[in-house]
Amino acid sequence: MEKSPDAFRTISEVADDLDLPQHVLRFWETRFPQIKPMKRGGGRRYYRPEDVDLLKGIRHLLYDHGYTIKGVQKLLKSNGNKFVIAIGNGDMDAVEALSQAAAAEQAAAKIQPPSLEEDQIVGKAKAPSTRRFFGFGASNQEPEMGSTGVGKEDRALLQEALYDLLECKRLLDQVR
């Protein structure tokens, strides 16, 4: 029996639709506060159609466009849920209209538009990794004696990677 398009979906139904494991959806709930499934007795999750559309957009950005979680978080913060939903549905007309509306709103408020970083540009995946690792090997210059050679941005990247690894370890420990 087929459900109505407006019906709520269980986590297993959403996971099957998006071809993702259920634990990934639970993890995304911790990273994206915009994902708020209804929870019933026993903690059972029920996703609204808008939640499913948002998850499709997030999945599309992460898996098909090569965005990082941090990059998708920035997109959601700067452009809103409707923007990411439109990207997930492939509605580029809506994406363009929402982008123009956001730019007009910023101009009306006389806000300086945020500088776009590589992970915020729709359709442009991050550059593939090379032998350069977090700024090391970017030039032939050796770091000065006594300096760590790790910049502020590199330190933040390392900290984020460490946090993600610790979260993976915690999840693996739960399975054991």
Describe the structure.
Pfam families: MerR_1. A hairpin with a 5-residue loop joins strand 2 and strand 3 (45-47). By secondary structure, the protein is mostly helical. Helix 5 (81-89) runs antiparallel to helix 6 (92-108). It has 2 domains: 1-126, Multidrug-efflux Transporter Regulator, Chain: A, Domain 2; 129-176. It contains 7 helices and 3 strands. The longest helix has 24 residues, at 152-175. The protein has a 3-stranded antiparallel β-sheet with strand order 1-3-2.
Summed up, what is this model?
The protein is mainly alpha-helical. The protein has 7 helices and 3 strands. The model is unreliable at 123-143 (pLDDT under 50).
Descriptors:
single chain, 176 residues, mainly alpha, Multidrug-efflux Transporter Regulator, Chain: A, Domain 2, 2 domains, 7 helices, DNA-binding transcriptional MerR regulator, MerR_fam, DNA-bd_dom_put_sf, MerR-type_HTH_dom, DNA binding
